[in-house]
Design brief:
With about 240 residues, the protein is an alpha/beta fold. The chain is built from seven helices and ten strands.
Length: about 240
Amino acid sequence: MNYFAIECTHAITSVALKTSQTTHIEHDSGWKNAAQRLLPLIQTLFKTSSVEPSRLDAIFLSSGPGSFTALRVGMSIAKGLAMAHDVPLVLIPTLDAMFYSAKAHTSAEIIVPIIYSKANEFYCGRANRQSNQSFFRLDYDYKKDSDLLNDLSALETQCCVVGRKLSKYFEKHMAKASNIEWLEADFFDASSLFEPDQRLFNEQSTADLSRSTPLYLKEFEAKAAKKQPFLKNYFK
């Protein structure tokens, strides 16, 4: 058994390789430069583990939401490896993987994984921790921080918000709602994909390499740069 995973959606890029004996993991803080740093990171992982790509049994990819560019880079590399070595590719939504990995770190009934997007807006998911009978999709949404907090504060049960750099985005709000627990997702990396991904792999939910795309959750819009006003007429 040789399973390979890529997580490059946000914050820290990581890759992992799980064999029947152990799990090897490599991290890189330069996730904004995924196009330059992801392939060298993968090369280091295969060298450290002494496993050749041709010996892989499956490739798992954290499919988003997250960084527009990093997601496309990760998807391209995963597809390339899968096609070159005739290996099945399994896609796992990042928020789902964060939910599963957070369950071991909190006893809250409701778990809400979030990923920062821009301007105090977040990709978010929500599910009851008891929803583990079979693989499922979270209730996805895209919210401003104030709207997210209002919704969670109105709940009558304990909930846990899990994400990265929570104190940076929510420091002023953390003490306002007694029913909200804040969990920093330092534990989340590519190795977190294996548990839910293997369930998908066992169910033969492999990706179609010709049609698979990142899970963005929202449409990206092209905007004219403020420093180049002469481009505004082009976008009209």
